[in-house]
Write a structure and sequence with these properties.
This protein is α+β, with helices and mostly antiparallel strands. The chain has one domain: Jelly Rolls (Sandwich), CATH 2.60.120. It has 3 helices and 8 strands; from the N terminus they run E-E-H-E-E-H-H-E-E-E-E. It has a 5-stranded antiparallel sheet with strand order 1-8-3-5-6, covered by helices on one side. Strands 2-7-4 form a 3-stranded antiparallel sheet. Strand 5 and strand 6 form a beta hairpin. The chain is elongated and about 50 Å long.
């Protein structure tokens, strides 16, 4: 069995954002040489997410509105976590959107559904963060 590991780095220039990382993960898969197996993609920071969904700007705006309704950024004083930091809302948003995605590898390709894409979700940006891509298989 082969094993491959790579880190993807992101620096989102605002507090929140979504980035389609499907092409980067596909490049990792190609480098790995794995033809059949699994790809694990996970955010290595507790205020960021990796998830699978549609690459549609209206949907992304809906995510932003929905998440802000569930865990509004302000007022910062509403959260017991906030003190030295102001990112309690980002921790909650990450919990809702998830930590990782696992995708099957079939015939050397990501085995995604017709509209599925992999995304990095940032909820406390303005600094460099990483995503782990771990690929195992034959």
């Amino acid at each position: 069995m082969k094993s491959f590991r790579e880190e993807l780095w992101f620096n989102i220039p605002r507090r929140r954002g979504f980035v389609n990382i499907t092409p980067e993960v596909a490049r990792c898969l190609e480098k790995s040489g794995v033809r059949e197996g699994l790809v694990l993609v996970n955010a290595m920071h507790i205020t960021a997410s990796v998830f699978i969904n549609d690459d549609e700007s209206g949907l992304h705006a809906d995510f932003e509105k929905w998440l802000e309704g569930l865990a509004p950024e302000k007022p910062y004083s509403q959260y017991r976590h906030n003190g030295a930091e102001d990112n309690a809302d980002a921790h909650l948003k990450r919990t809702v959107m998830g930590r990782e995605a696992v995708v099957a590898v079939t015939n050397g390709r990501l085995d995604l559904g017709p509209w599925e894409q992999l995304f990095y979700g940032e909820f406390d940006g303005l600094r460099r963060k990483r995503v782990l891509v771990k690929i195992i298989g034959e």
